[in-house]
Amino acid sequence: LVYCPCWDPWNLGPRKLIETPRPPRKTSPVKSKLTPPPPASKKQNYAQLITKSVIAPKLALYLIFHLEAQEIINVSPGYRFVRNREQICVTLGDEMSARKKHSESENMDKVRTSRTAIITDLEEQISELTAIIEQMNRAHRSAQKLLANEMDLRCAEMQKNFESKRRELEETHAAQLSELEKNYKAALKAEKLAAQDKLEDMGKEYKYLKNMFHIYQDSIYDGMEKWSEKKAEWEKEWEKILLQQSEYRKFRLFDDRCTKKLALSLVST
């Protein structure tokens, strides 16, 4: 019996399994239902199995593997083991065949006598397997329950962490918002004061410019009045000049007429 703890996660310990001998093929061609077929090899990439039968004088079975060691071992009469770097050779002689026939007859007797024991042992194994399955189910349910409880605890913890982080973020956001509002109000107040000072300066400047404009306007009005007075004086002088010119022209015409009359009178005398 080979027991490995890695195959027994429930710590049940080793269980005794009875090996059921197989009857010879000559007497019973049908395979026994009690004996399970040998398991097939899962991986055959690393090895090659070659079987050769020799008629006389010996029956040979060759198993060839690729190895590096080299060794010759006589295990028992009729059973020789040869191993070298390239292959493994197993030779089975007539002694092994005679022993095999004798063992087959003994196995038939054992099969006939131990059938009931095998059945009872199989029933015990089935009951043990049933108990193992039930224990596995219980372990699965308990593990599922533990996982569910752990998941609930983790969810509650995550929810608690989320709420605490959310509360911290809200507090931080509120503090930052209040600080921003405070800074904005201070900046707005400073801008209002600066704008008010600037407005007062601009009002003073406007008043000064307005006074200057009124002074300039008064000076322009004075200049316009003086200009109108000068214009009136110039017009009067111009009228005087025109009147003098017209009188001078009249005097010249009268003088010319008088001169002509005088000349005519002189000529006629």
UniProtKB/TrEMBL annotation:
* Residue stretches in coiled coil: 119-205
InterPro entries, per database record:
FLACC1 (IPR026674)
Gene Ontology terms: cellular component: cytoplasm
Q: Which UniProt keywords apply?
A: Coiled coil
Using the UniProt annotation, give all residue ranges assigned to the region (Disordered).
17-43
Q: Which domain of life is it from?
A: Eukaryota
Q: What is the protein name for this chain?
A: Flagellum-associated coiled-coil domain-containing protein 1
The organism is Tursiops truncatus (Atlantic bottle-nosed dolphin)
